[in-house]
Amino acid sequence: MGFKGTKQEKKEIYDRKMVDLLENYTKALICAADNVGSTQLQQIRRGLRPESVVLMGKNTLMKRTIRTYAERSGNTAVLSLMPLLVGNVGLIFTKGDLKEVREEVAKYKVGAPARVGLVAPIDVTIPPGSTGLDPSQTSFFQVLNIPTKINKGTVEIVSSVELIKKGEKVGSSEAALLAKLGIRPFSYGLVVQMVYDDGSVFDPAVLDLTEDDLVGRFAAGVSAVAALSLAIGYPTLAAATHCFLNSYKNVLAVALATDYSYPHAETVKEYLKDPSKFAVAAAPAASETPADAAAGGGKVEEEKKVEPEEESDDDMGLSLFD
User: Which domain of life is it from (predicted)?
Assistant: First the structure.
């Protein structure tokens, strides 16, 4: 049973509860709570305990509590929450990881029918196939220009039809047809709109960034700063390495064009005079094995085996025809 008391007493209890949350939590998710029922909200509360607390209430009451708490405590960081309290929103105070809490909140969504006058959050498409309705229900499909045929005593949709587009209001005919087909096209739950972290407010998409994304964006920023610095001739730390390299190229060019020289320029001058001196040594001969090349520097020669000469018949003083 809920607390029974005067309206002023309920406000004081709510004020103390919110002040306690502001003092003990530095992180919060600002969530839209449109079309979220009380039963669904209770499930979300149970699923987020014990690290997170869901706080719902009137925006004017929450803003007043935040303002008075900031004045009394000197914690002006909480004032950044006030501009976010617009519409049907709630706060999820947490001590856990913000990304994990957001993912947990997204799990608690329930299907909902298409009510008349409701703005569609997504496109609604009816797939082709049997509807299970008897032929007397064809008037619904005719009003909406949905091609159908009668097959085995039931109405069958010939091809898929985009019934409602995202952002459009649901009409009475669309709502009645979806109800007859038993289609609950929409799902609702708490939707994270903004993230509060110790005075900083940012879009929840930031929670999806990885370390690789941050490094890539930082590198792109450094490259842009370096390019701008080089273009306008303004020295910066990002362009320092490029400036040193360009300066070295300029000094080397002067040394090559004049008689002035220094140790590093001598190597370049020698190469320009006779590039053949810097040619890579020829590979070992194909007949040499890797072991031979390693042992003798690629110049070990195989010993030639001298075979003894064959003795001829003449040496014996005999002849075949004697």
Answer: Eukaryota
pLDDT at 79: 93
Mean pLDDT of 193-210: 89
Q: How far apart are CA 308 and CA 89, in angstroms?
A: 108
What is the predicted pLDDT for the residue at 60? Answer: 93
**Cα separation, 146 vs 308, whole angstroms:** 106
The overall average pLDDT reported for the chain is 81
3 state SS for 96-138: CCHHHHHHHHHCCCEEECCCCCCECCCCEEECCEECCCCHHHH
Secondary structure (3-state) at 30: strand
Of 89, 63, 73, nearest to 24 by C-alpha is: 73
The four Cα atoms 254, 257, 260, 263 give a dihedral, to 10 degrees, of 80
Locate 69 and state its tokens.
């708490």
Do 195 and 170 lie in a common domain? no
pLDDT at site 271: 80
Q: Cα(139)–Cα(147) distance, rounded to whole angstroms?
A: 11
Instruction: Give per-residue pLDDT as tens, 31-49.
Output: 998 888 888 889 999 989 8
Q: pLDDT digit string (tens) for 177-190?
A: 888 888 888 888 89
Judgement on whether residues 144 and 242 belong to the same structural domain of the protein? no
**Reported pTM:** 0.59
Say yes or no: 164 and 101 in one domain. no
DSSP state of 87: S
Q: What is the CATH number of the domain that holds 64?
A: 3.30.70.1730
Give the Å distances, CA to CA, from 156 to 141, 151, 152, 208, 261: 10, 6, 9, 44, 91
